[in-house]
Amino acid sequence: MIIVETDYTKYLSRARTLLLYDAQMSFKNQYWERCFNDIYRACINAVSALLCKNKMNAKTYADLKIEFGRQFVKTGKIAKEDGDFLIALMDQRYESEYGDFSNIVERFTFFKEETVEPLFVPAKKFLQDIEELIGHND
């Protein structure tokens, strides 16, 4: 994951579209795993916008998580709950993609309405907090 855009607004716009449109359409159509992935990608794009705005680079998702934690969560610029939320999303995404396939049933049963729907509120808060921080950086 290399931050290639120099205009952070493109990442922010993509984050809004993923969260406010794509994820909600996936949810409405009962595409639970796709909905989760849309929420995840929205948050990744929001963090990418923040890093881009601050002229930081991330070559991998691990770099993105480390820089976000080091530069924004540990310094108190972003709430710890937001950092925890991002880590939980990243961990679940990793597990669903690369986890132990001996338990394939668990992978597919995680993505259901009652596990995906509660992600919308913290995801919207996450995006709002990043937008607010970016606004204060101008």
Describe the structure.
The protein is mainly alpha-helical. The chain has a single domain (8-136), classed as Up-down Bundle (Four Helix Bundle (Hemerythrin (Met), subunit A)), CATH 1.20.120. 75% of the residues lie in helices and 0% in strands. The chain contains seven helices and no strands. Helix 1 packs antiparallel against helix 7 (120-136) and helix 2 crosses helix 4. It is globular. The protein starts with 7 loop residues before the first helix and ends with a helix. The relative contact order is 0.17. The mean pLDDT is 87.
Helical fraction equals: over 70%
CATH class: Mainly Alpha
Please, what is the average pLDDT? 87
| CATH architecture title | Up-down Bundle
* Number of helices, where a helix is a run of at least 4 consecutive DSSP H or I residues: 7
Uncertain segments are: none
By CATH, the superfamily comes out as Nucleotidyltransferases  domain 2
CATH topology: Four Helix Bundle (Hemerythrin (Met), subunit A)
Strand segment count: 0
Strand coverage percent? under 5%
Tell me, what's the shape? Answer: globular
Secondary-structure content class: mainly alpha
**SSE arrangement, N to C:** HHHHHHH
Largest sheet: none
End-to-end C-alpha gap: 25 Å
